[in-house]
Amino acid sequence: MDKIVDEIKEFVEERDWTQFHTPDCLAKSVSIEAGELLECFQWNNDYDREHVLEELADVMCYCLQMCIALNVDPEEIIHSKMLKNAKKYPVDKAKGNAKKYTEL
Fold first, then answer.
1. How many whole angstroms from its chain centre is CA 59?
2. E strands within 2-47?
3. Cα diameter, the chain
4. For a Cys-Cys bond, which of 5, 63, 67, 95 suits 74, CB 3.0-4.6 Å?
5. How confident is the model over 14-31, as pLDDT tens digits?
6. Using N-to-C axis directions, what is the helix angle for 49-70 and 2-14, rounded to 10°?
7. Interacting residues of 8 by C-beta distance below 8 A, sequence separation 6+
């Protein structure tokens, strides 16, 4: 993960875009790109895989840029969230079940 974060940092710094990458602007960008990803599936499940992967990469890049802006380790925050999710969704209650944790 460090390699790709460094690549993103370098790309942004070379273009002097760090000034624009405030957490609020990055959160908006994540949402916009997620909308574009969702648009790939708007009317049916017959999607262009290459387009989906490009939009997914955009979402992931903005998420990683937000980690950079907030000075947090993406692996750390994902790991922390997965531990919380494991408590909220224990295997014995959640396996094969799509209910929200409050309904298990």
1. 6
2. none
3. 50
4. 67
5. 999 999 999 999 999 999
6. 80
7. 61, 64, 65, 68
pLDDT at 69 (0 to 100) = 97
Angle at 40 between CA 39 and CA 44, to 5 degrees: 100
Contact present, 44 and 54 (Cβ < 8 Å): no
**12 vs 20: CA distance, rounded Å:** 10
Q: Could you give the dihedral angle defined by the CA atoms of residues 19, 20, 25 and 30, in that order, rounded to the nearest 10 degrees?
A: -110
- How far apart (Å, rounded) are the C-alpha atoms in residues 33 and 62? 8
Count of residues in the chain: 104
Q: Backbone phi, then psi, for 95, in 5-degree steps?
A: -60, 120
CA separation for the pair 68, 53 (Å, rounded) = 22
